[in-house]
Amino acid sequence: MSTTELPASHAELMDGVYRWQRHIYDLTRKYYLLGRDRLIDGLDVPAGGTVLELGCGTGRNIVLAARRYPDARFFGLDISAEMLETAGAAIAREGLVDRVTLAQGDATAFDARALFGHSGFDRVFVSYSLSMIPGWEKTVSAALAALAPSGSLHVVDFGQQEGLPRWFRAMLRGWLRKFHVAPRSTLREVLESESRRTGASFRFRTLYRGYAWLGVVGLPR
């Protein structure tokens, strides 16, 4: 596992939030982090391809993706040392150590070559992490910069619950604030703007009446 110098405040905040929660994170989050498996199914990783997850957390997604695409190599980045400890244990338990590499780093500014010895990924994905990252727009730019030509960025996160009752949205927002999570109202606009800037294609879906949003930005060859 590689480590670079990190912004202490956010790294310490995330370690504090997840020091104990990481042990029950996957059990509890499966009920409301919706759309993650749909994202993984849509990665369509080429044979022998490389995949980077930003904000890999407990390793839940990267383990499932590694099973789904057995010919690919995977890389996971997270700012929390506590989460990476849990992810490393999960990867070892699944016998994936030879195919998955983890590193501690800031998703808004990272050097993939220095961290992983690799750059130019076929796929980069971010699952329910942008809503926790200060300056999350920089993560979108950094993710696109880490892609190989014809690679794609896949994002799933909380939407604006636009098709759901107002009381539900208020209840959900109050709950999420306890974990320093804030749904990004401009997520679609930022992804679309970045796709125009890079000459990329852009696909966007609302899931479960706006509970979650799923976006894909595909770079040209």
From TrEMBL:
<dbReference type="GO" id="GO:0008168">
    <property type="term" value="F:methyltransferase activity"/>
</dbReference>
<keyword id="KW-0808">Transferase</keyword>
<feature type="domain" description="Methyltransferase">
    <location>
        <begin position="51"/>
        <end position="151"/>
    </location>
</feature>
<dbReference type="GO" id="GO:0032259">
    <property type="term" value="P:methylation"/>
</dbReference>
<keyword id="KW-0489">Methyltransferase</keyword>
<dbReference type="InterPro" id="IPR029063">
    <property type="entry name" value="SAM-dependent_MTases_sf"/>
</dbReference>
<protein>
    <submittedName>
        <fullName>Class I SAM-dependent methyltransferase</fullName>
    </submittedName>
</protein>
<dbReference type="Pfam" id="PF13649">
    <property type="entry name" value="Methyltransf_25"/>
</dbReference>
<dbReference type="InterPro" id="IPR041698">
    <property type="entry name" value="Methyltransf_25"/>
</dbReference>
